[in-house]
C-alpha cells in the first residue's frame, strides 16, 4: 500500500492522498505496527502542510492517531503533546463542542492516569464526561468516562500512593464519596437503570 501511495503522489489530489495515508496508518495501528502507523499519519500531515492545509480537522485526527501510537509504544510524554496539539487545533477550528473532542479528552485522561498525573487525568476525564453527556446522553462511552473518573479517585485515595499526600483539598471521606458516586452512576448507566 505504501509503495502504491508513494508512486501515485503526483497523480492524486493532495487531500485524497493525505486521507489515504491516514487510513493506511489506521490499518497499521490495527496490525500493532505503531511506528509504521505514526509515520503514515505524519506523512498525511506533511502532505497537508505542503498545500497550506495544515489547519484542518483531518490534521487534528492525524495528531490524535499519532498520540495513540505513542501511547501504545509507552511514550506517554509524546502522546500527551500530540493529544494537546490535536485539542488546540480543534479549538482553533471551533470544533471544541463535539463528541470527537470528548474522545481526545478521554484518551488524554487515560494517558495522564498511566503517568500517575491524577489531577490532570480527572480534569481531562471530566471534560470528556461533560461532552459525552451532552452529545451521547446515556451511552456506554459516557459510562466509560464515569467509571474511569472513579478509578482515578480510587488511585488518589490509595494508601501508599505518593501523590496522596499532595492532594490535601480532597479529604479521604470526599474521595470515597466521589469514587462511589461515579461508580454507581456508571453501573446504573451500563445496566440501563438511569432513565
UniProtKB/TrEMBL annotation:
Protein name: Kinesin light chain
Statement: the UniProt record of this protein carries the keyword Repeat: yes
Residue ranges of TPR repeats: 60-93, 102-135
Gene3D superfamilies: Tetratricopeptide repeat domain
UniProt entry tagged with the keyword Repeat: yes
Stored SUPFAM superfamilies: TPR-like
PANTHER family in the cross-refs: NEPHROCYSTIN-3, TETRATRICOPEPTIDE REPEAT PROTEIN (AFU_ORTHOLOGUE AFUA_6G03870)
InterPro entries, per database record: TPR-like_helical_dom_sf, TPR_rpt
